[in-house]
Design a protein that fits this description.
mainly alpha
């Protein structure tokens, strides 16, 4: 039982650290520069969709979250689930493109 408590404690610490880093990263000037770059992408083809996914989702999720519904992605961003609030700069069109990749 004590091993389970250690695992849960470590997971909670990890979640806290990820949330803190995400909140800090969202306010950094580097992210502001990236936001301007990514907001210019018009997701018309598979390559653009792949670029959007890899640039905004793949870093944390790898390929494991591909195919999520646009509404699920939007809710996660709006509620800042797992620090995804840092992606509020994505347009609804970009979110739909990411979900269809």
């Amino acid at each position: 039982m004590s091993n389970m408590i250690k695992i849960v404690t470590l997971l909670l610490i990890l979640i806290f650290l990820i949330s803190t880093i995400s909140a800090y990263a969202a306010s950094s000037p580097l992210v502001a520069q990236q936001k301007a770059d990514y907001s210019a992408i018009t997701p018309s083809g598979k390559n653009e969709k792949m670029m959007l996914y890899n640039a905004n989702c793949g870093v944390c999720h790898g390929q494991g979250k591909r195919g999520q519904q646009a509404t699920q992605i939007g809710k996660a961003i709006n509620k800042n689930i797992g620090g995804m609030g840092s992606l509020k700069f994505l347009s609804s069109e970009q979110i739909r493109a990411i979900s269809s990749f």
